[in-house]
Design brief:
By secondary structure, the protein is mainly α. It has five helices and no strands. 73% of the residues lie in helices and 0% in strands.
């Protein structure tokens, strides 16, 4: 018999935090005590928000690095954001 998973505000915050750092769903599920299918059923908003926040932070670091003069990062951002190519 399987136990019933009950989301709490604390678990929701943990799921979002783990998703923000890019952990796979199966590992997040293990950390919060459920399988990845249950995780996706009960925490879709937290998974999406965490992933978006993590991606935004990484993009911010890349942008700041380019602004500070990192030439390879400037080239990379022009290629991926503006469609530039060699």
């Amino acid at each position: 018999m399987s136990k019933i998973h009950k989301p709490t505000p604390e678990l929701r915050a943990q799921v979002e935090k783990y998703a923000a750092v890019g952990l796979p769903h199966d590992i997040i599920g293990t950390l919060v005590g459920c399988c990845d299918k249950t995780l996706e059923k009960y925490y879709p908003d937290e998974l999406a928000a965490g992933t978006a926040k993590g991606n935004a932070q990484i993009a911010g670091w890349a942008f700041d690095s380019a602004r500070r003069g990192n030439i390879p990062m400037r080239i990379f951002l022009c290629k991926v954001r503006l469609g530039w190519r060699e």
